[in-house]
Design goal:
Elements: E1 3-5, E2 12-14, E3 16-19, H1 29-41, E4 46-48, H2 64-76, E5 83-88, H3 105-119, E6 124-129, H4 156-168, E7 172-178, H5 182-195, E8 200-204, H6 217-225, E9 228-231, H7 243-246, H8 254-257, H9 267-282, H10 287-296, E10 301-306, H11 311-319, H12 327-339
Parallel strand pairs: 3-4, 3-10, 4-5, 5-6, 6-7, 7-8, 8-9, 9-10
Antiparallel strand pairs: 1-2
Length: about 350
């Protein structure tokens, strides 16, 4: 395994982070335990979860993933071997079953305390805001369209003050953002610098061969401000395994169970995936490992969040850490990206 350091800390984390959002829906607790066992055996010491997991978010499955991780900690005693990240859910129609008061002081305190209880731990290493409160272009919306009727008011300072208090209580160690944009990222950094408040050290956004939007303004911010990307969906919901275009996807696969996550299976995404598969085959690589190696090699990526629904997939994904893509492969990837840029934003 390769290791890196969370920005502005001395916390060493594996370059591959274990994603957990299928546990409690597509995967049972027993399967989640097996994945955590295998991951730690292979050197992964970084787990990422969220209070709303598993995905899709429903009232019936709410918080099952955190409960599974907490039960594993209790069973194994491995809490001290894991750098643990989780998130508070942002506001929205599909999270109204959790709470409706956004990132208010009461919401943040409530979310942290409940996550600690479910995770059966007294501290969280990295606590993240799952997506912005304000209206912006997240989750597959290509361009920003301003809504003058948005009722959100600037509360970056208030959020950081609340998180500062929770950090001082010892309940969380560091903070990060997720599904955030350039303006929001810089506002958090500005408030931290100006008012001596805790600093956002990571940003968890989607990044893959099919979605390289982060390489715009966000990559520059990441590198110049040293706020590391925790890349999620590097496999584009499994599309970049090639299993959907090759017809080998199981009935338990994500897009068969939840076809509404369609941006990764659009006509352009499918066309691009076929071209990337051809490159992988020409270089005797699996598409999955090529796709993951591409993400892990980016200079702005602190850790690459991998997920799987079975141990065979997980072993293959972990094996990607040993692959280094040469200039020929990278040039071929860029040729496709020039013709089919970001088909799944």
């Amino acid at each position: 395994m390769t290791y890196t350091t969370l920005p502005h800390t001395n916390i060493k984390v594996s370059k591959l982070c274990l994603g957990t959002m299928t546990w409690g829906n597509q995967n049972t607790q027993e399967e989640g335990f097996a994945q955590m066992d295998l991951a730690t055996e292979k050197g992964i010491n970084f787990f990422d979860c969220a209070e709303l997991y598993p995905v899709p978010a429903t009232a019936e499955t709410y918080s099952r993933t955190e409960q599974i991780i907490g039960n594993w900690f209790k069973k194994t005693g491995n809490r001290d071997k894991v750098v643990l990240a989780t998130k508070i859910a942002g506001p929205g129609d599909y999270t109204a079953h959790i709470r409706t008061n956004g990132f208010s002081q009461n919401a943040l305190k409530d979310a942290v305390n409940k996550s600690l209880k479910r995770l059966q731990t007294d501290y969280i290493d990295l606590y993240q805001l799952h997506w912005p409160e304000r209206q912006t272009n997240t989750f597959g919306i290509r361009d920003y369209k301003h809504n003058p009727e948005d009722s959100w008011t600037d509360n970056f300072n208030d959020i950081l003050h609340t998180l500062d208090g929770i950090i001082k209580e010892g309940k969380i160690r560091h903070i990060g953002i997720s599904n955030e944009k350039a303006w929001g990222t810089m506002r958090y950094l500005e408030e931290s610098k100006t008012n001596n408040l805790p600093r956002m050290i990571t940003i968890q956004n989607a990044y893959s061969l099919l979605n390289r939007v982060f390489e715009g303004d966000m990559a520059e911010i990441s590198l110049r401000e040293n706020i590391g990307l925790l890349a999620y969906s590097p496999m584009a919901f499994g599309v970049l395994s090639g299993k959907y275009i090759q017809g080998t996807a199981s009935d338990n696969s994500r897009l068969k169970l939840f076809p509404r996550f369609s941006r990764y299976s659009s006509e352009k995404s499918t066309e691009a995936t076929k071209k990337y598969l051809k490159i992988a085959q020409e270089h005797n690589l699996s598409l999955a490992q090529m796709a993951l190696a591409f993400v892990s090699q980016q200079p702005f990526v602190t850790s690459n969040i991998i997920g799987a629904t079975n141990l065979t997939q997980l072993k293959e994904n972990i094996g990607s850490i040993d692959i280094s893509l040469n200039k020929d492969i990278l040039n071929s990837i860029e040729e496709i990206h020039a013709v089919l840029p970001n088909p799944a934003p």
